[in-house]
Amino acid sequence: MDSHYNAALTPRGRARMVRAVIDQGLSYRKAAERFHVDPKTVQRWTQRYRRYGQKGLYQRSSRPKCQPRRTPKRIVRQVIARRRQRWTMDRIAMNMGISRATVCRILQRNGLNRLSALEIKPPPQRYQHENPGDLLHLDIKKLGRFERVGHRITGRRVGTSRGAGWEYVHVAIDDCSRIAHSKIQDSETADAAVDHLLAAVRYYRSLGVTIRRVLTDNGACYRSKKFAAMCRCLGIRHRFTRPYTPRTNGKAERFIQTALREWAYAFAYTNSTERGEHLPRWIHDYNWHRQHGSLNHKTPISTLGLSGDNLMRLHT
């Protein structure tokens, strides 16, 4: 049985208890009173330490050394072989004359209790467009608002910001340069998606990049007539990801993970307003200063031939 290393009576606590008996000469009863345990417990751990040393202070497995009724290895191999032929648990149990529970335990121990584990995963199809603006990935991340420091920092769920609502982080990332743009909106409606698209197009245009295509998932805001009309007005071709396949829009998904780790959950913000105010500064650092592994550890902005802090772009 695993237990916390710093708990009261784990290997470290047992070592202190045993040392109190061996080194300090305390009786079992006195040591039991000091460590708030039964005297028999003190006696058992002391005897184990004297016999096995430090290893004797760890919990031993309760599994018996001899298990005569355990399923034979021959049966286990047959169950696994039938499972690899896509047989169901019920069919295996009926065919081999064993219980379904036995089949389930065997397959679970071998990681085959789900049929999906037998499917061969397709190799990742990595791609990158040649020129900035050829493809812009769009996505949305829903974050909860809060009015005070939450349980991620304090570790306590008391005094939470119940009823504070939600905010939606609309993100965009260029496929070639990995230059990102993000904006916090109050909703994920078509109007919010169109507003973010316009803001993103203006931002990339300020860098000399013209957006020609966008890639989104099949969310209602991206399937709306308003979003389609805005794409036609801007001369942008709109593409959709394969349904139920988030990896199709993998660059946006990966950027969201990075944003959560390095921005949203990286600091103890007083409230969600303070968190939102920090987003533009983090985006600037991501584009101008943060090295990107897929770009041979260069900054995204370096793909455009730009360098330096360029604080004017951050504060305009």
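^ that was protein a. below is b, sequence first then the tokens
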Amino acid sequence: MRFTLELDHLAVVARTLEEGCSYVEAVLGAELSSGGKHDDMGTHNKLLSLGPDVYLEVIAIDPSAPKPKHRRWFNLDTYVGAPRMMNWICRTDDLDAALEEAPPGSGREMWLTRGDMRWQMAVPEFGKLPFDDASPALIHWGNSAHPSGRLPDHGFRLVRLDVFHPRAGELVDAFPSINRLQTTSVREGPEKRLIATIATPEGNRILA
């Protein structure tokens, strides 16, 4: 394989940041840490460490930010319904090579910032990733420190992530590297759905 690929973080999408955080905190019994604003996307987030190199993100449109000229990531421009686990994000050491293997429509490279952090991410033109958002988003942190290193560790750990889709086999065929990820399983199901099993101080909890 010409590039590395590892699970980086999970994204819970919500209509408002407050609504998303309330959902996650009720399920996991965890208080999320402040994240920040993404000026390039008009969004903001809060974060929870799931270990030394994995974290959970709650993300929503920032009502105080101007609307960007391009589509927002994570399909937020058309998002409706209750908060839910919407996307999973994989980091790579070579974004160009990863995009060559990834399914068509996985996005174009963009430099993004949050506070003093600067990184590259593949952002789909229309806001939605292939296979109904079941295909992972791709990120390259470059010289920027990984966010998990800045977060307090309250003992929450990702046990496993199950990615369901009616055409799961086609997704794995289109992006074979994801079949080698640890703690992640891409499986056939009646609809696209992400289910994370997370170990908490009170036992395992399911976030979906």
